Amino acid sequence: MTLIDLANPTKFLSLTARVLPWLTGATAIFLLVGFYQAAMAPDDYQQGATAKIMFVHVPNAWLAMFVWGVMSVAALGTLVWRHPLADVAAKAATPIGAAFTFLALVTGSLWGRPMWGTYWEWDARMTSVLILFLMYLGLMALWRAVDDPSRAARAAAVLTLVGALNLPIIKFSVDWWNTLHQPAAVLRMGGTSLDKAFLIPLLVMAVGFSLLFVTLHLAAMRNEILRRRVRSLQMMQASQQAA
Amino acid sequence: MTALAALIRRDIRIAVRVGGGALIGVLFFLTVTVLMPFAIGPDLALLTRLGPAILWFGALLASLLTLDRLFTADHEDGSLDLIVMGRAPLELACAAKALAHWLAAGLPLIVATPVLGLLLNLDATATAAVALTLLVGTPALTFTGMIGAALAVTLHRGGLLLAVLVLPLSIPVLIFGVAASQAAITGPLSFGTPFSILCALSLVSLVVGPFAAAASLRHGLD
Amino acid sequence: MSLGPHASFIVTSYALVAAIVLILIGWIAIDYRRQKERLRELEASGVTRRSGRQATDI
Question: Sorting pLDDT into bands at 50, 70 and 90, what band is A170?
Fold first, then answer.
């Protein structure tokens, strides 16, 4: 089955129906194993048990950026190839990405409270993620503001790609701004290398959350296709009644 | 080329004649700056310290609010369709429109900056620094804002949605604009570094803005 | 396993993640059911797809 075959929504729906149960099972297994390993992981010598927040914080933060990447690919699909599924993929990904970004922010904030003594620090990473969250919300506002789905899809695609170009610049600016205002580095995980005892649960959790995203995304795409089918049927009904 | 020059001339003429919105932007800039001391108190020392930030914020909001009409007015009277169908590349036409908009609505903000600097107790160097950074930075605001304006016209929505979409994209310009002005006033950083980055941001937006706006017009208008 | 002095923060963050993920799942499941329901209603009222297939077909 190639990408062209998937352009047919009916084929995509039948594929989804076959794949979703397996994906759900794999997601559940990975998340459960990851949760068990995270619970069993040793305490960090500096942060104590608080470092356990890392196992949910880091996968969410990684997904927050990954989902924007998925939406950018979908945006290219919308603008360049006019792939019928690209609109659906972009729209379905936006609220899920926003949810992951929100979780990254909140878990980061809950991690920061015991570590820095404050819920919110204008730390470079957290500030960048906050801006990313704002951009997700803007994109969701755009999807909601327009009732014609293909018109909204093209506008959202342009905005997604502009955002993808801008995000590295924003990241760089915020880093620069942060070093300007806060010369003292905030406490973070010691060094760049993580101990195996932390790395393995983290990787399992990351895989689990990524699978969760794929599962939710496919299910949301299925909903979106059905929603469009409802819309076109309603339009046919309206025109039949008018005739 | 003549088509683009004609477009620029036309846009400027529309902006400054009766009914055009260019000068309202300056009035808004003035009003925001005058309101600021009421919020933070008439403490001159504090105002001096916050001055560049206040001026930059006012300019950001003023240029954003005037952008709303960049494509909408042309869409209403049908001339936008002519521009899209015209022989001049749409990217260049968008760039010309943004340039005209900046000349009509952006430049007056910079001219007004020294007067507002007086109100905020900024000395000559500080005022010059803010004016210079605004001169370099406002094109970036106009050209990124143009993307939002193009989206707004294809969606038939404007106002708040435009602001919500465009403001996060203007964060880098705001950071480096204010940082460069502060560096010129208080140091210890050299003025050159943030100023060069601000110039770079403007140049990037000069390229990205017209392409994105043209793409959104081409795909969105029907 | 002891969670140390900041146990409430750890538990809250895990609980929040679980809550938001469950809300997402619930929202998607309810949405699926609602779209199916609507398609069935439309089908019952006699509107057919151009392809002639069942609207609720997957």
Answer: confident
Helix H or strand E encompassing A28: helix A9-40
- In this complex, which of A162, A163, A170 lies closest to B172 when CB atoms are compared? A170
Q: What is the residue whose two structure tokens read 């140390």?
A: C4
Q: Which of A154, A174, A180 sits opposite B219 (nearest CB)?
A: A154
As a whole number of angstroms, the distance between CA A112 and CA A107 comes to: 8
Q: Chain C contact for A126, CB < 8 A?
A: no
| DSSP one-letter string for B141-208 | HHHHHHHHHHHHHHHT--THHHHHHHGGGGHHHHHHHHHHHHHHHH-SS-SHHHHHHHHHHHHHHHHH
ipTM of the complex: 0.85
Packed helices B107-119 and B22-40: angle between N→C axes, nearest 10 degrees: 20
In tens, the pLDDT along A176-226 reads 787 766 544 444 444 445 677 778 888 899 999 999 999 999 999 999 999
CB A162 within 8 A of CB B169: yes
Q: Check: CB of residue A93 under 8 Å from CB of residue A217.
A: yes
Q: Interface partners of B (3+ CB pairs, < 8 Å)? A: A
Listed by start position, the domains of chain B span: 2-220
